[in-house]
Amino acid sequence: MTSPVIRVVHSRAKDGCHAAYEALILGMFESMKHFPGFLGSELLPPLANADEYQVIVKFSSQKDLDDWDVSSQRQMWHARFRPLLAADPEYHLLTGLEAWFSLPEIPVGKKPPRNKMALITWLGIWPTASIFLYFLTPYMESLPYLLRTAIVTGLVVITMTYLLMPRLVQVFRAWLN
């Protein structure tokens, strides 16, 4: 099972090049829309008293992101905006659990409060664990307790990571922001 991957790029434009840099990044986003596996993108301008941009792109799998990385379109866009950068960009890849609350709808510089993240996580875990326990307990009664809990918690983590959390974050994104 493949999971979506999110790349967060931290970059700084040279003085006087901010508008041109933003225009090129938005142009690159338009090209990406036609690329297989592309799920979304966002350009977050520097926060107050900062000069760092955050470029967020999401692909349906690592393979799709890798295909974009070696594409002629990406090479062309990077050749165009690289002269506008004050330094080499920093790349960060988010997958699985770390990406739950870092989707493009939630700016990386503005994470939701911990109490809201905890509540959304609980809203996913409680019914998921309850369902697995209800249906699997009759078949696992002969197994040792630690093995039963390992199986159930493993299934809960996989279900949360690949199915529920991405959807819960999308449903509650306005409240999380």
UniProtKB/TrEMBL annotation:
Domain of life: Bacteria
SUPFAM superfamilies recorded: Dimeric alpha+beta barrel
Keyword flag Cell division: no
GO molecular function, one term: monooxygenase activity
Keywords for the protein's UniProt record, in alphabetical order: Membrane, Monooxygenase, Oxidoreductase, Transmembrane, Transmembrane helix
PROSITE patterns registered for this protein in UniProt: ABM
Transmembrane feature ranges: 119-139, 145-165
Any single Pfam family the record assigns to this protein: ABM
Ranges for domain ABM: 5-93
InterPro entries for this protein: ABM_dom, ABM_predict, Dimeric_a/b-barrel
Keyword match Nucleotide-binding: no
Name of the protein: Antibiotic biosynthesis monooxygenase
